[in-house]
Each structure stands twice: as structure tokens, then as C-alpha cells.
Write a structure and sequence with these properties.
This protein is of the alpha+beta class. It has 3 helices and 3 strands, in the order H-H-H-E-E-E. The model has no long low-confidence stretch (mean pLDDT 87).
Length: 116
């Protein structure tokens, strides 16, 4: 193998390593919490806040979000119900380099219910 081939393989290995460390965090932070938020905010009208909060907790656990790395809140402002989800995590590359990720998502729905 020539030096160029070794260098290309080295770069591919580094890219794969970074992707495997960062990929799951980005998936949970972008697609994961948005899906949980959109799915559960519509259930508020039918089941109320206690059910929604329980389901948000379960679904965050299912997608792999640790309880100590997330916060969520359900609030009512006027005729709209807001669900805010905040997720943070750290990817550790060896001992010296750490990358912090912070994701926030808010979704809302119109409500015509008497649940609080």
C-alpha cells in the first residue's frame, strides 16, 4: 500500500469513529425529541396532562434519552398547550476532547378541553 492509501483509510476510520460517537446524540436531539413532542401534544386533548407527561417520560426512555439529561414541561397559555423538551448530552473523544450538545424543541396545539 502506498502512503496515500494509508492516509485515506486513516481519514475514513476517523470519520467513522466520529460518526458513531456523535450520530446517536444528534438523532435523539433532532428527530427523537421532535417526534415525541408532536405525538404527545395531540394526545393532550383526549387524555389530559398526567397521561401526556407519563408518555413523554416513557418515550424519551425508549429513544435512549437519560432522565438526568432531559427536562420537559407542559404549559397552557390561553387556548394553546405547549410542550417544551430540552435534551443535552456530551460526546467524549478520548480524555481531552469533549463536545457538548444542547437541543430544545417546543411544540403546541390548540385546545378546547377542560383538562389542566
Amino acid at each position: 500500500m502506498s502512503g496515500k492509501n494509508v492516509f485515506v483509510i486513516f481519514i475514513i476510520c476517523i470519520a467513522l469513529f466520529v460518526l458513531l460517537k456523535v450520530g446517536p446524540i444528534i438523532y435523539r436531539g433532532t428527530l427523537g425529541i421532535r417526534g415525541v413532542c408532536a405525538e404527545q401534544i395531540d394526545r393532550y386533548k383526549k387524555y389530559g396532562s398526567e397521561f401526556v407527561m407519563m408518555r413523554v417520560d416513557e418515550q424519551l426512555k425508549q429513544i435512549g434519552v437519560p432522565k438526568d439529561h432531559s427536562k420537559y414541561s407542559l404549559s397552557i397559555k390561553g387556548k394553546q398547550v405547549y410542550l417544551d423538551i430540552h435534551y443535552w448530552d456530551t460526546a467524549v473523544f478520548y480524555k481531552d476532547y469533549k463536545k457538548d450538545f444542547d437541543f430544545k424543541h417546543q411544540c403546541y396545539s390548540e385546545t378546547h378541553t377542560y383538562f389542566k
